[in-house]
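Design a sequence for this backbone.
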């Protein structure tokens, strides 16, 4: 690092002193905290993003959001060149950077890191970082801090994409690095074109009669509602009534997280909407759940991420089957695409059973998008979803290029046949779904297209299987990091003995299943229990909560 670079870094870092006594950690979803504490952290993540861009020779993304958290919080996370999450190997550096107490120790850290990672700062390196933020009022000044961080690295430039959904920013990074135009309009064009082609290939007779064509969407009073308002004017085939599009308080009694956890109607919905197909986005529009309101009640029938996953898996399996018709198998033209499904331990047991019954390979990973995404990328078609509504579909390059070729062959030999249409549908899905990261807007359009394809109402979809009753609780303990889990968080290995105690408790309940894990976003331990009745699930969760208290609580030494 030359002298000029050093002095720029020292000077700019001195304008962003870290708040005293706060420890930052780049958790499952980047840094999150009360917005008033975050300026120095965001400035430093700006530096990190610029370095990552120099190292990879690619465009990097930096998103300012705290998703479904309260409006006074904010956060920052980095998108890697593929559009996915920042590589896990840089997370310890992110932590160290955010916690460096003063400009000189920051400089020392940077010096060591660029040496270790062979990042060359000499001789006009080129770096570009795309910046986005959600609708939080604190986003503007934090965006400014990020810009200052980026420009503290010589040669690096920031490109402000403005208020965007988290998945839009990830999509833009991915597109840019593939050499594709990456504006917001390009994003909408791609979604709309592929959505329309899916509707164009709906089998005759299956159309729309069984589907109420009205959809009501809860925008969580965040960026997703605002964007959907823009998108819907171009949708044509679908009538969407967007509520909570930014006129109320972000995430307060609204949004996918609230609806999924509380299982009650969000604000601005009421008895008049009973039975109608409804969906809910989270604050930065990377989660999506559906629901329908029960008559004369504020309760809902939840159609969660597991059911979205099941709908996608069913459709893709069917289309692959049509494409690899029996003649092709004989003629050796079929390609045995591996289709895999990735869930976490939070997936309802009934969904896992259903997917296995479909003959699919189901794998569990620990909680957190980065783990699911990484696993799903091992398949030709990998579908991943968390029960909370975050998920997407990944297509391998090998499969997509085979599919392209096969589609061209079919277009010349058997245009318009079912087989040809299956190829076209699969291609359309690969363009409609955001392969960078889970995306509520693109996911919503895919759900809508598949429901129309099947001629299904939300009720029919919900009947694919019946969820087992479940209960989630959280427990405050002395030190949640004392819990070490294994087997995708389904087994506790430390403290010793607690897993046996959980097993004994669980065995008392028919269809009982229970696990505990330390939260990655809150200072609590989470308990999840499932059983054949709601009462049993509640009882199991409460007994295991007492075990957690006993082994890790304030009363224990
Ligand atoms: C974050 C994760 C989400 C996970 C949740 C778990 C990302 C982008 N987001 O929101 O996938 O489900 O944390 O929270 O990875 P918890 O650790 O507090 O239970
Ligand atoms: Mg989110």
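Sequence:
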């Amino acid at each position: 690092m030359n002298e000029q670079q050093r002095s720029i870094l020292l000077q700019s870092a001195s304008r962003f002193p870290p708040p005293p006594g706060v420890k930052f950690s780049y958790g499952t979803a980047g840094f999150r905290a009360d917005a008033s504490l975050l300026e120095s952290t965001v400035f430093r993540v700006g530096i990190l993003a610029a370095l990552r861009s120099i190292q990879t020779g690619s465009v990097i993304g930096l998103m300012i959001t705290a998703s479904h958290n309260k409006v006074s919080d904010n956060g920052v996370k980095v998108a890697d060149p593929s559009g996915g999450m920042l590589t896990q190997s840089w997370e310890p550096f992110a932590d160290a950077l955010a916690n460096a107490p003063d400009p000189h120790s920051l400089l020392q850290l940077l010096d060591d890191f660029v040496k270790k990672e062979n990042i060359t700062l000499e001789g006009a390196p080129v770096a570009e970082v795309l910046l986005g933020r959600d609708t939080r009022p604190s986003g503007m000044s934090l965006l400014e801090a990020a810009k200052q961080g980026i420009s503290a690295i010589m040669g690096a430039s920031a490109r402000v994409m403005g208020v965007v959904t988290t998945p839009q920013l990830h999509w833009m990074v991915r597109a840019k690095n593939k050499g594709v135009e990456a504006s917001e309009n390009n994003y909408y064009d791609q979604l709309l074109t592929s959505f329309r082609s899916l509707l164009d290939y709906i089998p005759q007779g299956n159309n729309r009669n069984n589907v109420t064509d009205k959809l009501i969407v809860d925008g969580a009073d965040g960026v997703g509602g605002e964007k959907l308002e823009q998108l819907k004017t171009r949708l044509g085939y679908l009538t969407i009534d967007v509520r909570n599009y930014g006129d109320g308080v972000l995430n307060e009694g609204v949004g996918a997280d609230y609806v999924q956890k509380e299982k009650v109607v969000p604000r601005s919905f009421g008895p008049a909407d009973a039975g109608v197909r409804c969906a809910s986005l989270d604050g930065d529009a990377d989660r999506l759940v559906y629901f329908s309101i029960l008559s004369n009640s504020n309760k809902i029938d939840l159609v969660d991420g597991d059911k979205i996953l099941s709908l996608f898996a069913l459709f893709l399996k069917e289309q692959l089957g049509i494409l690899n018709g029996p003649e092709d198998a004989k003629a050796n033209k079929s390609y045995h695409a591996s289709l895999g499904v990735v869930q976490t331990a939070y997936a309802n047991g009934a969904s896992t059973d259903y997917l296995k019954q479909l003959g699919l390979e189901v794998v569990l990973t620990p909680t957190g998008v980065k783990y699911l995404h990484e696993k799903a990328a091992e398949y030709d078609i990998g579908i991943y979803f968390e029960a909370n509504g975050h998920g997407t579909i990944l297509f391998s390059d090998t499969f997509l290029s085979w599919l392209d070729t096969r589609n061209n062959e079919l277009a010349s030999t058997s245009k318009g046949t079912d087989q040809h249409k299956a190829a076209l549908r699969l291609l359309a899905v690969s363009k409609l779904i955001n392969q960078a990261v889970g995306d509520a807007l693109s996911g919503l359009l895919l759900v809508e297209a598949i429901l129309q394809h099947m001629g299904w109402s939300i009720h029919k979809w919900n009947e694919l299987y019946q969820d087992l009753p479940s209960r989630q609780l959280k427990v405050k303990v002395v030190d949640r990091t004392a819990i070490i889990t294994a087997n995708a968080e389904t087994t506790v290995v430390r403290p010793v003995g607690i897993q046996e105690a959980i097993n004994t408790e669980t065995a008392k309940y028919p269809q009982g299943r229970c696990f505990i894990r330390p939260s990655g976003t809150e200072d609590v331990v989470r308990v999840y229990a499932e059983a054949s009745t709601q009462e049993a699930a509640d009882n199991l969760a409460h007994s295991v909560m007492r075990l957690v208290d006993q082994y890790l609580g304030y009363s224990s030494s």
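The two ends are 49 Å apart (CA to CA).
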